[in-house]
Amino acid sequence: MSELLRLVEVMDRLRSPGGCPWDADQTHESLVKYLLEESYEFIDALGEGDREGMREELGDVLLQVYFHSRMAQDHPTDPFSIEDVAKLIADKLIRRHPHVFEGLVVDDMEEVIENWEAIKAKEKGRTSSLDGIAMAQPALPLVEKLIYRAEKYKVELPMADVESASQQLQSAPSEETVGQALAAIIALAHQHGIDPESSLRGHARAMIEKIRQSEAG
């Protein structure tokens, strides 16, 4: 038996009568925080170059996928299983990679991305540049995505430059001017092809190291 199938059986036993009362009592809503936590813990392990930690945290993320899928089987009107989830993503990957599975000739990676976006838009029936953006995501990647979409769909998005936004922040600090300054920096990073989230996370790691060194004396 594959380990993936074994995980299905373990999860089924935990959720079934005679299993674990805590696991049986969980809902999609009660588990959302764990999905986020496990994802962040994997990011931490990745940033630290901790291969063993990455392996463990990916397992915890996988558990959340299996857990939610097992709960979904019990829905009274619209049940689905981990098999349905796996089929959906496998079919999606095949559809969105015609250069791999259908012999479509592409010239470069940019064309691959353009094809992906075109197929995705057709599948989703999107009519707005905002369609498909996860509005609940943290503000930094949300702003970056909004800037990207506005640029892609040629939507005019008034943005202050970093210098003027910084001056406004210095003269009148407020939530609004802080937001404008942060958005201006994100826009500048996007313009130069720099991932602002990765940049800030790297700087945070450097800050953490300095704090640790200071505490160590």
TrEMBL record:
<dbReference type="GO" id="GO:0046052">
    <property type="term" value="P:UTP catabolic process"/>
</dbReference>
<dbReference type="GO" id="GO:0047429">
    <property type="term" value="F:nucleoside triphosphate diphosphatase activity"/>
</dbReference>
<dbReference type="GO" id="GO:0006950">
    <property type="term" value="P:response to stress"/>
</dbReference>
<dbReference type="InterPro" id="IPR011551">
    <property type="entry name" value="NTP_PyrPHydrolase_MazG"/>
</dbReference>
<dbReference type="GO" id="GO:0046061">
    <property type="term" value="P:dATP catabolic process"/>
</dbReference>
<dbReference type="InterPro" id="IPR004518">
    <property type="entry name" value="MazG-like_dom"/>
</dbReference>
<dbReference type="GO" id="GO:0046047">
    <property type="term" value="P:TTP catabolic process"/>
</dbReference>
<dbReference type="GO" id="GO:0046076">
    <property type="term" value="P:dTTP catabolic process"/>
</dbReference>
<dbReference type="GO" id="GO:0046081">
    <property type="term" value="P:dUTP catabolic process"/>
</dbReference>
<protein>
    <submittedName>
        <fullName>Unannotated protein</fullName>
    </submittedName>
</protein>
<dbReference type="Pfam" id="PF03819">
    <property type="entry name" value="MazG"/>
</dbReference>
<feature type="domain" description="NTP pyrophosphohydrolase MazG-like">
    <location>
        <begin position="26"/>
        <end position="101"/>
    </location>
</feature>
<dbReference type="GO" id="GO:0006203">
    <property type="term" value="P:dGTP catabolic process"/>
</dbReference>
<dbReference type="InterPro" id="IPR048015">
    <property type="entry name" value="NTP-PPase_MazG-like_N"/>
</dbReference>
